[in-house]
Design brief:
binds threonylcarbamoyladenylate, 32% helix, 348 residues, alpha/beta, binds magnesium ion
């Protein structure tokens, strides 16, 4: 299959959106930018179309998709029951990087929800995404547009690396603004539960709806405590080289990483290091990538996946990363980094 690349970096092309919408209506696949990461879209209400997403990504069929809508009114058709919390949270954060899990209606096929009775819904804050959703019939199922197991794409080039020749179209809207997937909150229980941390923090949600909990499966290192979002149990975002997070007092972390990377270089291999701007000049035996300044957490989020992909290309033998516990997005950044590392942490 030939994958058409539509360039909309400078401005939205009405004609391009019309063509992309037509592809979705006919059951095809279109990758598109959102504010979080690039999505791989299909008509969410067409079981055959959403089945194509699983095939294109190599995604397990029990891992449900998020349904994207472009206006609040659209939610009624796909949900059985709208809780007051859903209205409050959508007023506060939509369009934006928040996904809500609600009881599904019969309109949503089980292929889209991975067999679950619930549906995840999100209204993205991106003009191209919203135009595409409207042109495609109003309901677009879209996981991140990467091959299953690879870091989520934050540019159209990343999408092309994984999906060229596999899907009908990629809309290039330039680099995304957040860089990590949306916060997922489950509203089917009495107290809302965060299934995946993101840009919208627990505290921000709490200010709108009161008590909000974190899914136990996210916090626990015990593999028998399963996360409630099926996708969170897989080792996602995995770079090719093993990744270790080095944690502890800053000076000690630098010494430890220098020691480990020196050993690697003595063996004739090349290590990679992920470091904050403040400390990236202190590593001497490795390929160092600066993720951003510690006081600019959005920059850190924006760069994480691109750096993991770059290390795949550079074919480093091992990656050591500093840790980045920042105030708002720290939980999300460290959740993704920990998953990429398969929870391998070196404490110093
Ligand atoms: O920012 C985002 O959310 C991006 C953009 C494209 O919108 N999408 C995204 O989709 O990250 P995906 O498929 O890569 O991740 C969806 C996550 C998975 O972990 C999945 O298990 C979970 O959402 N999920 C989807 N529906 C669910 C449901 N009904 N109950 C629990 N978890 C659900
Ligand atoms: Mg994903």
């Amino acid at each position: 299959m030939e994958t058409v690349i539509e360039n909309m970096r400078e401005s939205i092309s009405e004609e391009g959106i019309r063509r992309a919408g037509e592809i979705l209506r006919q059951g095809g696949l279109v990758a598109f930018p959102t504010e979080t990461v690039y999505g791989l879209g299909a008509n969410a209400l067409d079981p055959e179309a959403s089945a194509k997403i699983y095939r294109a990504k190599g995604r397990p069929s029990d891992n449900p998709l998020i349904v994207h809508i472009a206006e609040w009114e659209a939610i009624g058709k796909i949900t059985e029951e709208l809780t007051p919390q859903a209205k409050l949270l959508s007023d506060a954060f939509w369009p934006g990087p928040l996904t809500m899990v609600l009881k599904k209606s019969d309109a949503v096929p089980y292929t889209t929800t991975g067999g679950l009775q619930t549906v995840a819904v999100r209204m993205p804050d991106n003009a191209i995404a919203c135009a595409l959703i409207r042109a495609g019939g109003g309901y677009v199922a879209a996981p991140s547009a990467n091959t299953s197991g690879r870091p989520s794409p934050t540019t159209a080039q990343h999408v092309a690396e994984d999906m060229d020749g596999v899907i009908d179209m990629i809309i290039d809207g330039g680099p995304v603004s957040i860089g990590l997937e949306s916060t997922i909150v489950d509203l089917t229980e009495e107290v809302p539960v965060i299934l995946r941390p993101g840009f919208i923090s627990q505290e921000m949600l709490g200010r709108v709806v009161g008590e909000v909990r974190m899914d136990r499966g996210l916090l626990s290192e015990d593999p028998s405590v399963r996360p409630k979002a099926p996708g969170m149990k897989y080792r996602h975002y995995a770079p090719k080289a093993p990744l270790f997070i080095v944690e502890g007092e800053r000076q000690r972390v630098q010494e430890k990483i220098n020691e480990l990377t020196a050993e690697e270089s003595l063996k004739g291999r090349k290590a990679g290091v992920i470091a904050a701007k403040e400390t990236s000049g202190s590593y001497f035996h490795a390929v160092v990538r600066t993720i951003g300044s510690r006081d600019q957490e959005l920059t850190i989020a924006q760069h994480l996946y691109a750096i993991l992909r770059e290390f795949d290309h550079l074919e480093v033998s091992v990656i050591y990363s500093e840790s980045f516990e920042t105030p708002q997005m720290g939980a999300a950044i460290m959740n993704r980094l920990m998953k990429a590392a398969g929870h391998q942490v070196i404490e110093v």
